Sequence to fold (406 residues):
Amino acid sequence: MSLPSNGTRHRGEEDGEPLHLQLRSLNIHTPGANMSDLATDSEVCPVCKSSRYLNPDMRFLINPECYHKMCESCVDRIFSSGPAPCPVAGCHKTLRKNRFRKQTFEDIGVEREVDIRKRVMQILNRREEEFDTKLAYDNFLEQREDMITNLVSGIDVAKTEAQLSQYAAANAKSIRHNKALESQESASFLKHQSLEQEQIRLRREAARQDYDNERRALLSDKEDILTRLATGGAEEAEAIAREGKRGMLKKSSARRSEEERIKRKQAALLADSKRAQALADAVDTGTGPALDSGLIKGLKRIKTPEPEKPYDPFGGIRPDGRDYYQLQDYYPSSYLDPIRDNVQMLAGGYDLKEYYTRSLLEAFAGLGCFIDEEAGARDKASNPSPTGLAASAAGSTPLPVDEDIL
Fold:
């Protein structure tokens, strides 16, 4: 170990070499430096580089077209005169000022997913009562989630958007019908919520009023007893106190009985009003686009089951029927006529009718095969049309464009 010329060791040195020589080569960073940089980037406008540190009232806005964040001053300066391309480098989408809005979620990915989910669910808004089985409704929900996942993850975006557009065009009336039902349910729910809040407020005020009345009655009875005791004699004091106590108990019990009777009556009236309101909301009255069916909301249209066909082990295939020929019992042939009269061959089990059947089948085989039609049907099965998307999920045929769905 080497020591300095004065024979003493400097502070911070270790065996081998001075410690400050090792520390000089180290690259030491502050632990919160990266987080502070990220926080600073999120508070700076990427267009004008203005910081919220210098302008605390600065508001950031986003556009659903590209979800690039910029300050409100840049939005007013760039897009006030009309549509313009996004000023962020590398983004060439055309933006409009009226579509800018404040960011709801901190993560821009969550913001984009929520917007996509809202847009898709406004188009694919079929309801559970439109399906015959729970499985069909679950399949429809699964297909809708697959389309949302494709749009969020960027998988087959053009194809998915085309399917949504075609479905919206083919089922415009059904989409409007379900939107009207949803808005009606939302309004009814808000109305019921406000009614319940009003009932709670009235009950609270009634309870407070009852408490005040009871308190005033007790004070009045006590003052009456004290007045009688002050004006009466000593021999009447015990009788006055006993009579006053008995009167207070009678009034209190009568008041409680009356309150219970009023509460039961109010509860019965409230239950009747709620039941009548529910029936009024459930029955379609024909006053709007969502109320033109004349049925109770949520009631499924009963479908008459088709009569079961007799069991067919061949699944509709006719084993003895042919489309292009008809089997005859006899065909003249110089080669087969001797066999028909040969007892030895017929005794061995040889049947000329089987020979006729096989020969005609081989002769006409392939006449019913059309390669173009089979290839077109195969391609159509592999790429189903978006119009029948929900119908295939429900296990039925595609609905017409203007068919009303209940």
Remarks:
- DSSP finds 13 helices and five strands in the chain.
- The beta strands are 60-62, 70-71, 84-85, 94-95, 101-102.
- Residues 175-282 form one domain.
- Residues 329 and 353 are 7 Å apart (CA to CA).
